[in-house]
Amino acid sequence: MEIRNLGASGLKISAIAYGNWLTHGSQVEEDAALACVRQALDEGITTFDTADVYANTAAETVLGKALAGERREGLEIFTKVFWPTGPGAHNDKGLGRKHILESINGSLKRLGTDYVDLYQAHRYDHGTPLEETMLAFADVVRSGKALYIGVSEWRAEEIRAAHALATELRVPLISNQPQYSLLWRVIEGEVVPTCRELGMGQIVWSPIAQGVLSGKYLPGQAPPPGSRATDDKGGATFISRWLEDDVLERVQLLRPLAEEAGLSMAQLAVAWVLQNDNVSAAIIGASRPEQVTENAKAADVRLDEATLRAIDEIVAPVVTSDPALTQSPRL
Question: Is the keyword Oxidoreductase assigned to this protein (predicted)?
């Protein structure tokens, strides 16, 4: 497993991170979730990403159980705060001081750890002054409950403003966690150049576009039984945007490139995002241990320039790249 620095910081993480959005505590039974985490550890994955909102806190609990007994210093555990949790009362959401300071305590208890390596603002909070949010995060770091801070799905101007405050407060804002794949490239125009300038790295989610880039969804055909597109617990909603025939036809044109490179289509997709020099890690999810094994192999792959050009030519008509699509809700 390749180990990379997260942005310009001294924190080293595995190039493949294991994430449990839509799986632990929801789509996947606990025994299967534990098996997937065990396989991730066996593959050399040391970085684990979750959030308090996943399965309304249950995902953190499952991950805590899965990592219990592991050497804490050998792991990088990330979580996030913003979305409503618990009963969703007025202070159960957002990035106000009360919610941040209460949420970190809940996350640590569920994860069974004294600290997280990275605590992330899951979206930008339009209803709270940024100064209040950043001071609360700074206090979390100074209390030893988080070592570093990051953001997720923030726009370039929001990242720049937060980084200026973090510098003033002398706390390390080191990362952004955006959606990124060879179909969804909205970060390339503004977010990546800004983060590169500021020394922040990307920890990208959905590098396989919710499974569409695995090639298992075929144009003109119903989704395979048991796939994410048939999941009624949330998976089908998130993948629906990609299940258009024009997208699926383009994806199938990638198959010869993957075969020529000796890769599965999923490995091709993960390897592609990892070749962006601002990407520190790609987050993979899994419902079966063998999926972890397959995707972890992408960490060692380097695609040549001809392959990268061919990929771009194939998917160009269906790529989404508008920076304005990075948006945070007004809670």
Answer: yes
